[in-house]
Specification:
single chain; alpha+beta; Aminopeptidase; Alpha-Beta Plaits; 2 domains; binds zinc ion
């Protein structure tokens, strides 16, 4: 298959995109760039949803429709997120041979601008070469990096495609077919404050209680498809005050919903048991002479569990995977079908009933200032997209 990719133009597009600031919630400049680019490419429709009202971003998600010249073929979509992680402003791209890096003080932003650049080049070569293809929809989301907010607020009914591909994973020629669900935990522990030097016996340390509960917990990798972590702790006022309020934030992830529920409950139980068995305070001298018995002050815990994102799992017989598999065969390429350990927009799109596989874009060491991308991988990605669009499955 001879695919007429213009490598220099692809590289230029990628560099341009990386050098536009687009931290989460400030994606407007990239969104404007995409509007201009796809307008010039004759997009049939450019729609911006109203998700900004929920996400707090400067703009909504964009859905761009490309008609194609084979309207009888099924519509598929591609998706990328427009936002990048910090430090991601003022990116200056360095190209050394085929390798793109930042100059070192920011991320590169190949997550997810590698995917965006490949899509733009794809549409350009389809048009320049008058390649037959069916209708395409391109979804550009906001706020992926801060909790998949854009995708969660997406006006997904606007997508008419039956299935699609999120271009958003490291490595190359990898297809992600499953990703875990995650729960977010906010553990709110109340003890009793007291002066640590004068009346320590009148206090209950929320911190000590939390420490006891955590000491009995299993965290880290729990089994081959589940993990748990407590990642943040807030609380305390001064060294001479017994801390009466500690907040711990954590997460549980699993590819299995049953295990996710069980491990989440295990953490809740560990804290509740510690609270239930915490020794009661000795009555104070005043209470000892009091006629009316008072309720002994006791600690308490509240565990707030929020579904962060649902799991996704595709079958090799699903049309979305059959199509990319065929595309790989057409290219004479072996694609790897793998499970991921993290959540992304695809988890949300799948939960809307839009089967979405994740395609690796060649991005590497993402979310670090060592991030890099090889132009050869970006070309390979674009070739794969081309093959997906022009695949001869079922014909
Ligand atoms: Zn990403």
């Amino acid at each position: 298959m001879n695919i007429p990719i213009n490598q220099e133009r692809l590289a230029r597009t990628f560099i341009q995109l990386c050098e536009i600031d687009s931290p989460s919630r400030r994606e407007k400049e990239v969104a404007d760039y995409l509007r201009r680019t796809f307008h010039a490419l004759g997009a049939e429709k450019i729609f911006e949803d109203r998700s900004a009202e929920q996400t707090g971003s400067q703009c909504g998600n964009l859905i761009i429709s490309i008609a194609g010249n084979r309207p009888e073929q099924e519509t598929i979509f591609f998706a990328c997120h427009m936002d990048t992680v910090e430090p991601g402003c003022g990116v200056q791209v360095l190209q050394t041979g085929d390798i793109f890096t930042s100059i070192g003080d920011t991320v590169l932003g190949g997550d997810d601008k590698s995917g965006i650049a490949a899509i733009i080049e794809l549409i350009r070569i389809l048009q320049e070469n008058k390649i037959d293809h069916g209708p395409l929809e391109i979804l550009f989301t906001t706020c992926e990096e801060i909790g998949l907010l854009g995708a969660k607020a997406l006006d997904w009914n606007r997508l008419t495609a039956g299935y699609g591909y999120a271009l958003d994973s490291s490595g190359i020629d990898r297809i992600i077919i499953g990703a875990p669900a995650a729960n977010k935990l906010l553990i709110d522990i109340h003890g009793i404050a007291a002066h640590a030097g004068l009346h320590p016996e009148q206090g209950i340390s929320a911190l000590c209680l939390a420490a006891q509960a955590i000491a009995n917990l299993r965290l880290g990798r729990l089994d081959d498809e589940s993990t748990a972590n407590l990642g943040l702790i807030h609380g305390g006022v001064a060294t001479n005050i017994i801390p009466d309020h500690i907040i711990i934030e954590g997460e549980v992830r699993s590819h299995s919903l049953q295990k996710l529920a069980a491990y989440t409950e295990e953490i809740q139980r560990a804290f509740q048991q510690e609270v239930d068995h915490w020794p009661a305070l000795a009555p104070t001298a005043l209470e000892q002479i009091s006629e009316t018995p008072t309720q002994a002050p006791a600690p308490s815990v509240l565990v707030n569990v929020q579904v962060d994102y649902p799991a996704m799992r595709l079958e090799l017989s699903d049309p979305v995977l059959m199509r990319v598999k065929q595309a790989g065969l057409d290219l004479g390429r072996t694609l790897e079908f793998q499970m991921a350990g993290g959540g992304s927009d695809a988890n949300i799109l799948n939960s809307f009933g839009l089967p979405t596989a994740i395609i690796a874009t060649g991005m590497n060491k993402v979310h670090t200032t060592d991030e890099y991308l090889d132009l050869k991988d970006l070309v390979r990605l674009t070739e794969l997209l081309f093959a997906i669009v022009t695949v001869t499955v079922g014909e």
